[in-house]
Amino acid sequence: MIDPADSATTPLPQPTRMRFASDTRVYSVVLDQDLLGDWTVVQSWGGKDSRRGGGKITHVPNFEDAMRLLEAITRRRAQHGYKIL
Question: CA distances (Å), 3 to each of 8, 11, 35, 38, 74, in order?
Fold first, then answer.
């Protein structure tokens, strides 16, 4: 909360973070809500022993859609042999 005496502001939720790893790769996902209440899923990936990698940001309309996206990402990472850290 920005100002505890202000009833118009609400506390920001803690971002949900997930990390995955295979023998050679790492992958992370962060679900977060911005100051305007919009939800985003930030994905990043790369090699364990290299500086190469990438990422993308997906804007989702609501929390339920964001959770469905996280579940889909988790299933996909498991199919590719990643373990949750």
Answer: 9, 10, 14, 21, 37
